[in-house]
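S., here's the first fold you wanted:
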Amino acid sequence: MLYTDKTCRQFAEVTASKAPVPGGGSVSALVGALGTALGRMVGSLTVGKKQYAEVEEEMLSLMDEADGLQRELLDLVQKDIDIFQPLSELYGMKAETDEEKERKAQLMEAALEDACRVPMEIMEKCGRAIELAGIFAEKGSRLAVSDAGASAIICKAALQAASLNVYINTGSMGNKRRAEELNDKCAIQLMTYNTMADEIFENVSERLRG
């Protein structure tokens, strides 16, 4: 059974348990999917309204893109779970001889690289969802602008959480140069989209407060 097929209650309960999965990466992907869905909802509440006729085509295009991002983020919930399993097994792998230690180190390096890939994908998808949230907030239905702001800030949280799952794996890498490259990519994503999400949130808050 895929974790995305569980009920909300089941997912929360297994996350809170001693089970090794789902962890921060999977939860980040799920939160990002929900945040993306909120932005998409603004589009749904905009199309078909006469006062927004001039932006309807753009809204429909953005909604299609948001649908794709949501599906991809939901797929990443399970991908993060699946990719953790081999890494978890390697941590428990016995290595006594020099040959075994070298083999384990090689396998660990490859598994750590793989384990970074999924949360970095999550960050990428959440960054784009934040961009979409900004457009939904600017051009979408004024009655749903709060949801656009919520979309941005929720996706920001998912992006930040996913970055921690990159850092915990790069910290164990033997190839420090590669680890630094991945950390730098994360830092750029965080700097770009944290600022963007905060600006969207503040703009929406000001509009709501009048």
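And the second, which I think is the more interesting of the pair:
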Amino acid sequence: MPIRSRIIGVGSYVPERVLTNYDLEKMVDTSHEWILDRTGISERRIASEEEATSDLAYLASQIAIKDAGIKPDDLDFIIVATVTPDMLFPSTACLVQQKLGVQGIFAFDISAACSGFIYALSVADQYIKSGIYRAGLVVGADVFSKVVDW
């Protein structure tokens, strides 16, 4: 019987600060209706100066691990999809690994913008299907609010 992978837990985290389309109306020549009609977006979350991509990824990871009913030490690998890493080196995945307190597993980032999370899932799927690994953590995390020129 072939080995199959499956998603056993999910988690999410967003920063507390909210920036609405109405807030953007005060900053640039636009309207809530114009943005909503074209993008479907009514609000976005803004990371604080103290929040990094790895912080958001770590908090979401804790929730996903709990939802899966496993412990961080059960993980065989961590893949983080991001185009806004905390720094170029070490990878955001390694920072998440450290924050989770997990040692002896591999961790790396995939940088592919909007499709990054799908690529990361695909890579994780292949690792599991190989039969060598049993459990991996895949995280999609970005902090675009730190790179956007509002």
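Why I say that: The mean pLDDT is 97. The first helix runs from residue 21 to 27.

Talk tomorrow,
H.
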